[in-house]
Amino acid sequence: MTVVIAGASLAGLTAADTLRNEGYEGSIIVVDPSTEIPADRPPLSKQVLAGEWPPEKAQHRAAARVPDLDLDLRLGVAATALDAASRSISLSDGSLISADGIVLAMGATARRLPGDQPAGVHVLRTLDDCLSLRAELEKMPARVAVIGAGFIGAEVAATCRGRGLEVTMIEAAPVPLGRVLPGDLGAFITDLHRSHGVEVILGVGVEGLEITSEVGGSEHVSGVRLSDGRVVEADVVVVGIGVVPNTAWLEGSGLRLENGVSCDATCSAAPGIVAAGDVASWPNPLYGEVMRVEQWENAVEQGEYAARRLLAEIRHEELPAPFATIPWFWSDQYDRKIQMAGRPSASDEVIIPEGSLEEHRFVALFRRGDLCTAVLGVNRPRHVMQVRMKLTESLDWQTALSVFG
Amino acid sequence: MKIVVNYDLCESNAICMAVAPEVFEVRDDDFLYLLTDEPGEELRDKMEESARRCPKQAITIEG
């Protein structure tokens, strides 16, 4: 019996751990193009980038479990092709494996700006990305430009301020996180960063990069050219404009690829093939909506679920109930702990039953008709989790509101 | 079975409270409190799940 897991990050290794916990004794082959087990990512934009943690501390529990899991771990090896019907998977080392079960957990890759990538331009996804950015920050550049005011951009901006660096954050949308948050919460994020000394430029696109040639002919970034003609001078540019799921190798596999690997409600993409983490797109029954979730906790929860679901299929047992989850994430910026549970949209009504935007400590509930779609808290972890526990049973608005008596 | 929380690591994300509210409680002061540090054996699965889900790896189970 052979299970192949494509991806040795949080979702993939959590799936491996779960297979063993559930008593699976067959072979588990884990492949990943990285030459080392990928780091736990949340500290990469915070403690490791800040220089507070040594890199090796950015290791999640499932990675620490690897020596106990009896894995055939093939690092530096990518999965290159799949035939879903026969579950045969080709690897970059030339081997072809016929698997009884496959877990697709390849994660995602940071999106880059188009064109040349001169020195000084960074994305932040892997430990290597983090360390090369950190090395440049340690040289105390005069200014860091952050392109994109999403959560990665916002955390990098906060960490750079913590290092005493000047920071400009550039966002093409009129408010940060405008796709997911209603405007007044986006304005809160803007205010949070401005009050900590970040220059925040909104509603202006990036036209291109300014480049200088150094002695010896190599090129280094010197600034960001904006669509309104302005130039933000910067020695370091961090690009935080989202990620793309790593599914290119699955073209022609027979799987449906639509914003990731399209799965059914039990995270199955085809017989004997499941997906988890950043690559998995599935109909979440709690929301009646197909979603793909790029969040730490989902990688754990879905990794566990997908492994259990795959085992049930292999063992001809009853399949688990559909994967129903209230997505949850946290983001630490300065001394603020932002947490959100749910799936808001920018058009939801926002009600603040606790605290206020002005004091930077509050709970916001998102309302769509009779439903509470999400809860966001700033330094209010207890309330966020209490609402999340209610939402797990039903998205009913009054039930969510009842948390606040 | 004994539950140990490393409060230097804990950031009160309250994931554990969602898994096992009978053991973990994040209160209004935003700190995590253990309602018992020796939960019954029937809670072992929930304790292991809490430890696994903790984003800070702040929970360990002894025994």
Automatic annotation (TrEMBL), chain A:
A single Gene Ontology CC term: cytoplasm
Oxidoreductase as UniProt keyword: yes
Molecular function GO labels: oxidoreductase activity, acting on NAD(P)H
PANTHER family per record: APOPTOSIS-INDUCING FACTOR 1 (PTHR43557), RIESKE DOMAIN-CONTAINING PROTEIN-RELATED (PTHR43557:SF2)
Pfam families: Pyr_redox_2, Reductase_C
Organism: freshwater metagenome
Keyword Flavoprotein: yes
Domain FAD/NAD(P)-binding, chain residue ranges per copy: 2-303
Protein name as it appears in the record: Unannotated protein
Cofactor(s) of this protein: FAD
Keywords: FAD, Flavoprotein, Oxidoreductase
SUPFAM superfamilies according to UniProt: FAD/NAD(P)-binding domain, FAD/NAD-linked reductases, dimerisation (C-terminal) domain
Reductase C-terminal domain ranges (all copies): 328-393
UniProtKB/TrEMBL annotation, chain B:
Database matches in Gene3D superfamilies: 3.30.70.20
Pfam families reported for this sequence: Fer4_15 (PF13459)
Keyword Iron: yes
Molecular function in Gene Ontology: iron-sulfur cluster binding; metal ion binding
Tagged with keyword Iron: yes
Keyword terms: Electron transport, Iron, Iron-sulfur, Metal-binding, Transport
SUPFAM superfamilies to which the protein is assigned, alphabetical: 4Fe-4S ferredoxins
InterPro entries: Fe-S_cluster_ET
Name listed for the protein in its UniProt record: Unannotated protein
Lineage of the species this protein comes from: unclassified sequences, metagenomes, ecological metagenomes
